[in-house]
Structure formats: structure tokens, C-alpha cells
Amino acid sequence: MLKHKYIDKICIGAATAALVIVVLFSVLGNEAGVKRASAEPGYVERLFDDDTVHRVDLQLKDWEGFLRTATNEEYVQCKVYIDGEEYENIGLRAKGNNSLNLISEYGLDRYSLKLEFDHYADGRTYHGLDKLTLDSSFQDNSYMKNYIAYDMMDSMGVPAPLTSYAWVTVNGEDWGLFLAVEEPEEAFARRVYGRDHGMLYKPDYKRLEDENADVALRYTGDSFDDYDNIFRNARFDVSDRDKARLIRSIKKLSAGEDLENVVNVEEVVSYFAVQSFVVNLDSYLGPTGHNYFLYEENGRLSMLPWDYNLAFATYSLGMPEPINDAELYINYPIDTPYSGDVMLNRPMFHNIMLVDEYFEAYHERYAHFIDAYFESGYFEDKIEEVSDMIAPYVKRDPTAFCTYEEHIKGVETIREFCLLRAESVSRQLAGDIPSNLNGQSRDRSGFVDGSGVWLPDMGEISDLVN
């Protein structure tokens, strides 16, 4: 037995020192990039190792019946094997909005899919993952739009879903190459923000023709009902207290007040740099105003990326005479990424950019992005590596929306578009090309030449016609 008249003081001192060490390690560890244990769940190094093409086999009794009723978006039970590991009683449904209906309309059945591991049994996960999407590359001959966009976001420190390619089979029969995407729900929130994470929403409209002010993050009053497009799309149980806190933040955002406390400005300007770069008009910076996740913690808001199959200036495609002004979109203005009436109704972008300090930060982050992602050679290396990895799978994809030759052309087109876009953005930041719509309407003389790019080569609705 230890005998010392100061034993109590020694023990207390030792405990205090240990606590100090733990706190210092936590603080310094975070600054050094050491992640919390919860930030590295098992699924990260398994399914989302993106250096290889994974295997996902879906097993269900009535696959044909599932396809016939896919547009109902109802879950059915299935068994799934991921790289040989078996998981029973998993929820499976088709995913999509316009893409879902168009695929059905054209008599095809290559739907994007959702797998929900805990749909039929609470707590069931794939090594900690509760939900994932298998993206079908609709209107994406390159198979890379979502992959590259999320990689760009991640490179800028914006929390983005993890992705990897997966060869999907159904009841043992080849179905095709899909992109596995981590769905932003509980597992995502824990991985990114820790166990004590905040609230996560996916604002989306019921009907596009409605005003949808809440999707645009505009304050219209204190009634919870005014924000139904946000609250009914909450990823976690939302209390009245949560709702009131979010509305208070939206009110300040709409008024342009106290922005440093109601917006994670550094992260949001990084998000908008990538968002405007990829010219995703089916987004918050476009007429639809959706396709993003909203994260709120202690009244502070940030935006997270989602759904880029119509990015890289392909939102306008699919019309009888597809718009292909590649030069317009390659040089699309970074400071007014859509018409004035839309931007005035997007307070998360407009009101932040009205503050000189934040506007300068936006340009600084944009310059960093162009330098680190493009001028370093990283982008071209990434495109080549991914293309080489997936090419054999695309070549034998039995449900592909395009031919292998069209895929190769799609890869070259997205590569060329991004490189020319990076050149234009650099010139806009330097003042050699106008960076707003008004300036560009008067002077396009310095535009980067985009005449060699044909946007439909990245994929369009007419490709669905067999």
C-alpha cells in the first residue's frame, strides 16, 4: 500500500495533469489534422477506398417487379453483398426526381438506387454507414461529374460525401458501373462533425413553380409552416426549439446582419467557389435553388454539396435544339453566377458577397482552388487515373446510357471544359475578363475560346433514345 501524507494531493495533481494532456492533445491534434475516432468509421477504408472498383451484388426475389414500380420510390427488402460481405434485410429503392421519371418515360431501367441499412432494423449499418446511393450517371457520359465535383469540394475543405466506383450485379447478373455515394445522414454527420453534431436538412421544393422562399433561405416570417420545404426534409428529428433557432438564423441571413455568427463564412465561400466553377444551374446558384444540404449548429449555417449530374453547364441540355454556347459557360461570371433577379433572392450568396471582407475571401479561396487543383497538375492526373480505372468496366456496362466511344469523348470534354474554365477564372480574378454579367454583356473580347467544346458530348437526354 502506498503511504504518503501528501498522497491525496499527488493523486489530484496527477489527474489534473492527465486532463491537461488530454485537452492539449485534443486541441493540438485537431490543428495537426488528427481526426476524432468517430471521424474514421470502418466504411471509410472499405467501400470508399476510391483506388479500386468495388463489387455490390443486390439479391431480391422480384427484381422485375421492383423495376416496374421504381417510380413509386418505395423501399423493398433485399440482401446485399459488398465486396463479398453479406447484409440481409436492407432497404432498397430507386432515387431521383426528373431523372427517375425520364428514365421510366424512355423505357429504360437504369435507375439510381438508395440502400438504407437500418430501414428494417434500427442500428444496422455497413461498418458504421447507415445509407448510400448508387448513382447511375444519368446524363453523364464521362461517369465523372459527381465524382469530380465532390473531389473539388473536398480539396477546398468543404465536407463532401465520400465516393467510389462500384460494379453492380443483381442476383449475380451484371447490371453496370455505378458511383457509390455516402448519403448525408447520421453516419456522415458523425464522421464530419463528431457525435455532438448539429442539424442536417436537404431543402427541396414540392413544385418548382411555387415561390419556395425557404429553399432559397429567405426569411418570410416566424411561422414554422413557412419553412416546410426545410423541416419536412430534416435528416434528424427536429424539435420546435431547433426550428425556432434555424428561423432566427435565416432572419439574420436575409437581413445581412450578424453574418459572422450565423454563417460559417470561410466554408461557405469555399463552397461557392467550387459551385460557381462547375456551372451547376440546377442548384442554389440557379433557377431551381435546390440540390444542397444545409447544416446548422448552434445557429451557424453552412452549405454542403449534392447532386452534380447536370453540372458543367449541362443543365440546359435535352431541349429540341440544345444550347451549346460553350464559350459562354466556360467564361461564366464568377461574381454573378446567374441573373440578377435570382441572385437577389439567394441571400446565402448575395448578402455574403455584399461584405467587402467576405467578397475578398471568396476571391482568395477561388485563386487557391485554381492554383492547387489545376495549375498543380492534380486535376489532369486525377482524370487520367480515374479514366484508366473505370474504362474496362464502362466498356462492358450492359445498361450504359452511352457507348464506350461516347464515354471516352465525354471524359475528354469534361477535361477540356474544366481546363478552359480554370483559365477563364484566372483571367476574371486578374481583371482581364469581366467577372459579372453586366460587364460580360458589354465586353466578351477577352473570353477564353470555347469553340472546340461541344457540351452535349458530356451527355444529354437525347442519348436515352435507343
Q: How would you describe the overall organization of this protein?
A:
The protein has 466 residues and is α+β, with helices and mostly antiparallel strands. Helix content is 40%, strand content 14%. The strands form 2 sheets. It has a 7-stranded mixed beta barrel. A 3-stranded antiparallel beta sheet has the order 8-9-10. The radius of gyration is 24 Å and the shape is globular.
Q: What sequence of helices (H) and strands (E) makes up the elements?
A: HHEHEEHEEHEEHEHHHHEEHHHHHHH
| Beta-strand content bin | 5-15%
Q: Note the overall shape.
A: globular
**Rg measurement, Å:** 24 Å
Per DSSP E runs of 2 or more residues, the count of β-strands stands at 10
Number of helices: 17
Helix content: 40-55%
Strand order of the main beta sheet, please?
1-2-3-4-5-7-6
Q: How far apart are the first and last residues' alpha carbons, in Å?
A: 85 Å
Instruction: Give a short account of the largest sheet.
Output: 7 strands, mixed, barrel
What is the overall pLDDT average? 90
- Class per helix and strand makeup: alpha+beta
Low-confidence stretches: 1-38
